[in-house]
Amino acid sequence: MEGKVLLLSQRRISDLVAFCLSYEFEDNLAAMTRADRFDVQDRAALEFSRRVYKWTRLASGSTKLAGVLAPSPPQLPLQRDYELFFPIFSNAYQLHALTAIPDWRKRCRKAACFITEVWADDIPEYLVELLSGFDHIFVGLHHCAPQIARIAGRPCSYLPLAVDVERFAPKPEQQRSIAVCNIGRRSATTHAALLAGAERERFFYYYDTVAASGSNRKERTFRVDNPEEHRIMIANILQRSRYFIANRSHVNNPEFTAGRDEISARYYEGAAAGAVMVGEAPRTEEFARQFDWPDAVIHVPFDSPDICQILEALNAEPARLRAVQSANVREAALRHDWLYRIQAVFDILGIVHTDQMRARADRLRQIAGSFELPAAA
């Protein structure tokens, strides 16, 4: 498979912090297959093409006419054939980037894609139709797979998110100087209590200072210069955090989720870094299956004015905390590295695993072995 995988990346035109996870997946896939990566370059041209395609498609009802009338974004012509085309999209609105490689289906024996986040009531059908040429579609949220399959007319499977465990795993005796890490969406009540506690007790509370955004002022997003550097920084922070507040996706926006609990990336990151995760976990069988070890997430209500008292009580159980930290890293290394998602994709498509994949599996087993708890006397 060396040099026989083709990636299509948005990293040159889409630099929101939330998209760094998709780029980490791309980097891991490239490292395990020595893939070629084509980067979309002209955001303005691509967006103009998408808008023309959208309105022509909706007005005429014809995908063929829309494809003819929409101006082509800068093209990335392929010079050779590939075994697999595997573009990774952070959301479904990025799918129009496929038009930048017009001959991808002719040049690639197999084709699959991964959409990190797409919600069933926010699916741009005119773009999902573009996936009809793929052999298989993978999505990072569980509930939307049947709808994507219906629109595209192709098999669609849930592929859980993951993390670069080799990057996030701490040293076995890692010192954790950050008492609590609370990034992304947060409860104002819990945050205020932690601020007061940190001031009173002089512990290190790490949190975002970026302004809340979005129409409902419930998001905390920003742009990054280099996605890899950002992922390195997040790994370093979590490796040094004792507690990590991790909640289900869009926990502070129940109107948006409408009761559809999904697993956010925070759980994979926190587990791999060996932090003790506290918060409101997804209330789903899928979450219970993926995070089925004791205390994977210690339940703490989203709004917790008594958060400092809760954490103080946990601090009184050091043996429990050590067991949680070790189990989190061990389970992440054996189950939630990007390697295992790539293996699942290859197995579904009938593609042989690479030597680099087998070598990574060995390294992950070594990491897991470093966090085995000694047998009880």
Automatic annotation (TrEMBL):
**Which residue numbers delimit the Spore protein YkvP/CgeB glycosyl transferase-like domain?**
234-345
Could you name the domain of life of the organism this protein comes from? Answer: Bacteria
Please state what the protein is called. Spore protein YkvP/CgeB glycosyl transferase-like domain-containing protein
What is the organism field in this record? Bradyrhizobium elkanii
Pfam families cross-referenced by the UniProt entry: Glyco_trans_1_2 (PF13524)
